[in-house]
């Protein structure tokens, strides 16, 4: 079975490497040299070069189209993992067994953008690892493999990303062997496109820490946007300040103090700030100069 691979992020790299290590026949890879759009971008070209896999860079100056590259290498199936663009029908129909996509959520719920970030930001206790046969919709195709992924209160973007990846790599081998040996997945689940919801694209304002939020809401926001993502931020008179890690203070402060008031600063530079319902500790942050106790953020 000839597999053509499309992707451009850290997860894509892990999947491609896993397929190579398990001796699947990779007939080509479509990727990008760089992506400002993906904060978890990872260059796939070293894997392709070291394993003699034909490589196509998706860029305007490339005289060959993606469709021409795919037709040249005649894949039996296309895997598209970590590619933030809708594929045209000419690509969806280019391989015998179609295109398999991936979404880190429990489809049909939570289709759409930034699923790891939204799951943490909303304080969910469960998400998923779902592979599906891509159609012209966004995350709406028939499900071929799905696993539940538990979310701990201590998980952040990096740890949840890794949990999902571990499950996904196991799933990838399972269904790849089925495609290779049987040609079709017999137990596909057809998605009801009326069910479920679609998460919207996040904007910069969605990453703003407003201390009128509850401590738990701030904690969830920060752990959702930490590495490998862009980070939550505080707006100050001297520009935005990134915050990468917080904890909810166990100290009980008077409830007549206003949100945003700085209550304490530790010797380690941890800043304690009044929130709507308590206090939040800014553990890892990018203050160039620490604020002072009793000032406001």
UniProtKB/TrEMBL annotation:
Q: Which key words are in the record?
A: Transferase
Query: Which InterPro entries does this entry report, sorted A to Z?
Result: Formyl_trans_C, Formyl_transf_N, Formyl_transf_N_sf, Formyl_transferase-like_C_sf
Listed GO CC annotations:
cytosol
Which parts of the sequence belong to the Formyl transferase C-terminal domain? 203-288
Instruction: Quote one Gene Ontology molecular function term.
Output: methionyl-tRNA formyltransferase activity
Q: Origin, by domain of life?
A: Bacteria
Stored SUPFAM superfamilies: FMT C-terminal domain-like (SSF50486), Formyltransferase (SSF53328)
The Formyl transferase N-terminal domain is annotated at 1-168
Recorded protein name is Formyl transferase
- Tell me what organism the protein belongs to: Gelidibacter maritimus
